[in-house]
Design brief:
Layout (H helix, E strand, L loop, with lengths): L18 E8 L4 H12 L11 H17 L1 E7 L12 E5 L10 E6 L3 E6 L5 H6 E2 L2 E6 L7 H15 L8 H18 L12 E7 L20 E5 L10 H7 L11 E8 L5 E3 L13 E5 L9 E2 L3 E5 L3 E7 L18 E9 L3 H9 L2 E4 L6 E2 L17 E7 L5 E6 L8 E4 L5 E4 H6 L5 E5 L8 E8 L2 E8 L1 E2 L16 H9 L4 H17 L11 H9 L10 H11 L5
Parallel strand pairs: 1-2, 2-3, 6-13, 9-10, 10-12, 11-18, 19-26
Antiparallel strand pairs: 1-4, 4-5, 5-7, 8-16, 9-14, 10-11, 12-17, 14-15, 15-16, 19-20, 20-23, 21-22, 21-24, 24-25
Helix pairs in contact: 2-10, 2-11, 4-5, 9-10
């Protein structure tokens, strides 16, 4: 167990080979951050399109298109999360979580010769990875992995359960996500994992959903006398008194003697204003003997906001820690049968005097005891709750057929639609209204032409709720990613430049950038160039489908084979 930068977990281990597939989940989501920081590391991109000048961006885009053409990327987010413009070569799947929200934060990364599962508290956002204190665990699935087989298999089962929450039939993007789960299951089946955990470390997967609490899995990692002490670390708490989550944890402290039982709450405190980020009702716990401590952030400038979640239970001989996405709330711990969030956590059990236990205690970062008389208490807006209108459940699924002429396919559920609504393109061109839909017989499936020049990665939906106008995004996914056209940035690349790049022994993105800069210098120096624009699809095919070189064939000959395969003579 080691402390590393969370983003480093997205980079492949040595010898992992080429990227194959990724399945990640998040509540809030930032498309640009995911692409430029997480995806670029997973794909081992040498640069990003957000860096440098136009030529650098084209080369970076070519490299990205090349890798995405051979890699399946699926991201699951809660349907309340607004969509942003993105590359349609990877899937963004909105989840309808019964009774609550998709709140799990887990990623499965698969390369040719390795795989990794990351589970923790961080959303796929710049705040989650750069401006907040988070906790996460990374499990490398390789020949050295000593995690018990049933733990990894349960993680795979829970990932499949989350994908199955995606509405609509098992086809296109949903089918691709399930295929990634199948691939992960196959990788796990091929590993020589132990039947039980190694040494004194015990692990158990702890999901949460309405009526199912992660606290129920505590017994899977516990040994010996019952716990006496609890430490609760969370950025968000129940505002009620008594708080359901606190009551549930207190009920787990059944060790003897009863007088030795204790509870410690660890809360965030703003270093500038000295405001406690917790409900004032938590003060009532002091009267029962509990201690409230400040989270002593390890960040040198003390400006990172607490977003990590952890529960520690201890006896004199044993410790258990739960790390993951669950806040210390009734909804986060699955304490209600009718509502609650869909979470994913991991219990770790170990001897109380072990190095692992010492490390887990250190993660709680216990600071000074809170003086209730000298601090202000203020509940922060919950980042894990919807802040914008949620797309009504009647808007089930939207996919894109990118083959010419491109068309959108909409799936609607009449019983769950609002009375009045309309659907617009990202350029706010009206595509469909409730009145027009009913006049056409209220069909469940609708096909319509794409009206904007660019293929949309989302649509806009407007409706009225209790007399108030609302608007949300409706995510679009490509039914067949192979039918997507090349990016328009490739339209200005000439045959001459492409052939020169293909003839190089360097990787195509690097060779293309070199040739584009050589051409640009010639133009800047006043030379006249006769350009013959090439169909952009040729560039994508050349990048995505290299011809394997037979034994004894050098790189130059292989490039000529590439030219001929795509109908180009060198």
């Amino acid at each position: 167990m080691s402390d590393i930068r969370l983003l480093d977990s997205w980079s492949p281990p040595d010898g992992a080979g080429q990227p194959v597939a990724c399945l990640a989940t998040s509540f809030t989501f930032e498309s640009d951050f995911f692409t430029q920081e997480c995806l670029s590391r997973f794909l081992s991109l040498s640069t990003t399109s957000a860096e440098g000048d136009r030529i650098s961006s084209i080369a970076a885009l070519l490299e990205e298109e090349d890798r995405l053409s051979e890699t399946q990327i699926s991201v699951l987010i809660d349907r309340s999360t607004p969509a942003e413009k993105r590359n349609l070569r990877w899937d963004l799947l909105p989840v309808t979580a019964p009774g609550g929200l998709l709140h799990a934060k887990v990623a499965a990364l698969i390369w040719e010769r390795s795989a990794r599962i990351i589970l923790g508290s961080a959303n796929l956002t710049s705040a989650g990875y750069r401006r907040q204190v988070e906790l996460a665990l990374a499990i490398d699935l390789n020949a050295e992995c000593r995690v018990a087989r049933d733990v990894i298999e349960t993680l795979v089962i829970e990932l499949r359960r989350l994908v199955e929450l995606v509405p609509g039939p098992v086809s296109g993007p949903k089918e691709r996500a399930l295929n990634t789960v199948d691939l992960l299951a196959d990788r796990v089946a091929g590993l020589n994992l132990p039947r039980t955990g190694s040494g004194d470390l015990r692990l158990a997967v702890a999901p949460a959903r309405p009526g199912s609490s992660p606290l129920d899995r505590f017994g899977d990692v516990w040994r010996g006398a019952q716990p006496l002490r609890a430490t609760l670390l969370s950025p968000f708490w129940d505002g009620a008194d008594p708080a359901p989550a606190v009551k549930a944890v207190r009920g787990m402290l059944t060790g003897r003697p009863a007088a030795a039982r204790s509870v410690t709450f660890v809360v965030g405190v703003d270093s500038l204003t000295q405001t406690v980020h917790a409900p004032e009702s938590l003060l009532a716990q002091i009267e029962t003997g509990a201690v409230i401590r400040e989270f002593d952030t390890p960040d040198p400038d003390k400006r990172r906001t607490l977003h990590a979640k952890m529960l520690l239970l201890e006896s004199d001989q044993w410790m258990a820690a739960m790390i993951g996405s669950s806040n210390m709330t009734g909804a986060g711990l699955g304490l209600y049968t009718s509502h609650g969030h869909h979470e994913l956590n991991l219990w770790l059990g170990c001897p109380a005097g072990s190095k692992t236990a010492q490390h887990l205690r250190s993660l709680a970062c216990l600071g000074a005891e809170i003086d209730p008389d000298n601090l202000d208490w203020r509940v922060l807006p919950d980042e894990d709750e919807p802040t914008t209108p949620v797309l009504p459940f009647g808007f089930v699924r939207c996919t894109l057929d990118a083959s010419a002429p491109p068309r959108l396919f909409l799936e609607l559920d009449a019983e769950k639609l609002p009375e009045t609504w309309d659907i617009l393109s990202p350029m706010e061109k009206q595509l469909l209204t409730a009145e027009g839909w009913r006049a056409d017989g209220a069909p469940q499936q609708i096909a319509m032409a794409v009206t904007d020049d660019a293929l949309p990665s989302y649509l806009l939906v407007r409706w009225d709720a209790e007399g108030q106008p609302c608007q949300a995004t409706w995510i679009v996914n490509a039914e067949d990613r192979g039918a997507l056209p090349a990016p328009p940035e490739f339209n200005d690349i000439s045959v001459e430049v492409l052939l020169a790049a293909l003839a190089s022994t360097r990787p195509l993105p690097i060779a293309l950038e070199r040739e584009l800069r050589r051409t640009q210098r010639a133009v800047d120096e006043g030379h006249t160039l006769v350009l013959d624009p090439l169909l952009p699809e040729l560039l994508v095919k050349a990048a995505a489908q290299p011809v394997p070189a037979p034994d004894g064939v050098d790189d130059r000959q292989q490039q000529v084979a590439v030219h001929r395969q795509h109908g180009v003579e060198a």
